[in-house]
Write a structure and sequence with these properties.
- It contains two helices and two strands.
- The protein has helices spanning 33-45, 69-81; strands at residues 17-26, 48-58.
- A two-stranded parallel ribbon has the order 1-2.
- The longest helix has 13 residues, at 33-45.
Length: 82
């Protein structure tokens, strides 16, 4: 028996929600590719499709935007272009 994971999708006429996945790492840590893969699967199970993945390292969360004003603007521009 194979240990390969298989993902099944039902084909419908429903439009999938497009998502920009934002991953932030703080205090010198880095984003784990396994965590990003898990987040992508969560988006898909909720009926979305990941269009872009944005990662960022910061010393600490920005109190106003969590990811910083510049990165928030970048993500906003990416979302407008989708």
């Amino acid at each position: 028996m194979s240990s390969v994971n298989t993902v099944f999708r039902t084909v419908t006429d429903q439009v999938l929600e497009r998502v920009i996945l934002v991953c932030a790492a703080f205090d010198g840590s880095s984003t784990d590719p396994r965590d990003i893969s898990e987040m992508k699967r969560l988006v898909e199970s909720a009926g979305g499709v990941v269009q872009e993945t944005v990662t960022q390292k910061r010393p600490r969360p920005d109190p106003a935007t969590f990811i910083g004003r510049g990165k928030a603007l970048e993500i906003s521009q990416q979302a407008s272009a989708m």
